[in-house]
Amino acid sequence: MNSENEIIFLRTYKDFIFYFNMLERNIGYCLSCCLKSYGNKNSDKWLVTSFDSKVKRILKLAKRMGVDEKFCTWNSDIEECRHLRNIIVHGNWEWHEFSDKPIRFHAPEIENGKGEFTNDEFKSKLNFLKIASETFAKIRTQLETACQKAQPKHAR
To answer: Which of 45, 113, 114, 147 is surrounded by the most beta carbons within 10 Å?
Structure first.
């Protein structure tokens, strides 16, 4: 039988993966939308490329459109989220009920891939991801607007 605290951990774990995947899809949709503005016929390929490729492309596009300042701060936040996502997906997780920090993880192939959390510390990582996702939702509109304004005349 799982304790109430372990169930909270498992829900937070699940929610982190859910919100990260949602953010990744939104980045792909943003790229697809921006590149369609330029008449790029392969713009939908960004829906299925790797997360790292999407982030690199979105940063390159933001720089080209002159809105890269806000994306630089977001990028440092998203890198932290990506690192934890890799640990979540590739690591081994254990629950130690009677420990001060009952959540333990070990992902030997990932740098800084070993540690422990309290439930509150782990939930704060989820909140950090939610904030990064909300920030992207705000700044992506600036990028999409800039791309629409800069689109070639024949595509308008």
So the answer is: 147
Q: List the domain boundaries for the chain.
A: 4-151
Q: How many residues does the chain have?
A: 156
Question: What are the C-alpha distances in Å from 90 to residues 11, 37, 106, 114, 153?
Answer: 18, 37, 9, 12, 47
**78 closest CA partner among 2, 9, 11, 139:** 139
Please state the pTM of the whole predicted model: 0.87
Contact status, residue 49 vs residue 27, Cβ threshold 8 Å: no
Contact of 138 with 25, CB cutoff 8 Å: no
- What does the alpha-carbon distance between residue 137 and residue 27 come to, in Å, rounded to a whole number? 9
The string of pLDDT tens digits covering residues 13-38 is 999 999 999 999 999 999 998 888 77
Question: What distance lies between CA 69 and its chain's CA centroid?
Answer: 18
Locate 78 and state its tokens: 């998203």
